[in-house]
Each structure stands twice: as C-alpha cells, then as structure tokens.
Amino acid sequence: MTTLDLLRTDRVLSVVRAPEIGDARDLCSALVAGGIHVIELTFTTPDLPRHLERAAFGDTGAVVGAGTVQTAAQARTAVEAGAQFLVTPGQGPEAAEVVAAAQAGGVPVVLGALTPSEVMTAIALGADAVKIFPAHQFGPKYLKDLSGPFPGVALVPSGGVNAGNARAFLDAGALAVSAGTDVVSPTDVADGQWAGITEKAKAFCAVLR
To answer: Which residue from 34, 109, 111, 130 puts its CA 20 to 30 A from 102's CA?
Structure first.
C-alpha cells in the first residue's frame, strides 16, 4: 500500500511540530495506536534526521515523512535518514530540486500551495499530492472550489484543521486532512504523554467516520 493509498484509507496524517521529541519511535507508536499511521516530522524540530532514523526504522507500523522541507539539501538529508515522503510549506526557488530529490529517493512529495496557480505549478513540478495551506483561513468551501478545476488532484488541507472542521474538509473533496496540535501538542510530545496522544488521535479519527 502506497502512502497515498494509506491516506485514502485513514483520511488523516499527523503533523508533529515540536521544539523537541523525547522518543520519536514511542511517539509514532502512540499515534498508530490511536488510528493515525501517516506521520510528518518537521524540519522546525532540531536534529530532525536523528528523529527520522529513530521513527522510520522502528517497528511501529507508521509511515514517517519529513515536513517543512524547503531546500534540496533538506530533501536529500531526509530521504537518507529514512523519510518515506516529503512535504513542503510552499514552493520556493528549490521546489523543482526538492521534487527531483524525492523522485530519486523513490518517495512521494506533497508540495504546498494556496492559489489555483500554485496548485497548477505543483502539478507541473510533479507533486504526488498538494497541501493546501493555511486551510483554516479559507475553509472547506474554498477547498471545494479548488476541487472543481482539479478533480483528479489529491488535495490535503493543513493548518488549523481540527476535530470541529475536519469532516467538512473531507466532504469538500480532500484526500485527507492534516491533524496538528489538536492531536499532538508540543507539550505532550516534550513530556512524553503517549497515552494522552493516543486518546486524542482516537477522538480525531472518530469524527472522520
């Protein structure tokens, strides 16, 4: 099953944006226990390659990728550390090189976009899916509008998606949604509150059914 296939099944991925991660493998195990199998660790966390190695090569049942990828060097580093997919916040000057690094490593890439023109550019660059960010600023109706001219494009809203609006984004045509601090708060991650994270993941997944 590919990463996109898993997203079609789970309808959610978890974005972990924390100043520190005590144990990335335990974190991933906690999220999988709650029903979330696709997990994005971001370059805003110090020493990300070490956390990727810990998570990606642990037997957790998770598919672990790298987020906030902005340069080709970051993309290559993430793939070498075991990232199983890459996510960018937008399309910077090295977007094409990021896609090339992902393709060379045999992993899918999700390019960030907001406007129709940016979605078109992401498709042209070879993105496997397009992250719509910041999704909460425009809401599910905007995502539905984007789905009109791009019916075959896998759109993943991110930023401000929570248990209260996640179902509406899916109903508007999203492939899956990105769950952030609503499921994984930086404090819970730093304190190793794995049981609490599992329960929050279960509660989030429940609203998607």
So the answer is: 34
Specify the pLDDT at position 23. 94
Segment (H or E) for 65: strand 63-67
Number of domains in the chain: 1
User: What pLDDT sits at residue 1?
Assistant: 81
Q: Is residue 131 flagged as an active site residue?
A: yes
* Model-wide pTM > 0.90: yes
Choosing from 40, 80, 94, 97, the catalytic residue is 40
Asked whether the beta carbons of 54 and 23 are under 8 A apart, the reply is: yes
The CATH number for 7's domain is 3.20.20.70
Catalytic status, residue 40: yes
pLDDT recorded at residue 208: 95
Contact 52, 75 (CB under 8 A): no
List the domain range (segments joined by +) for residue 117: 3-206
Catalytic residue among 20, 97, 131, 144: 131
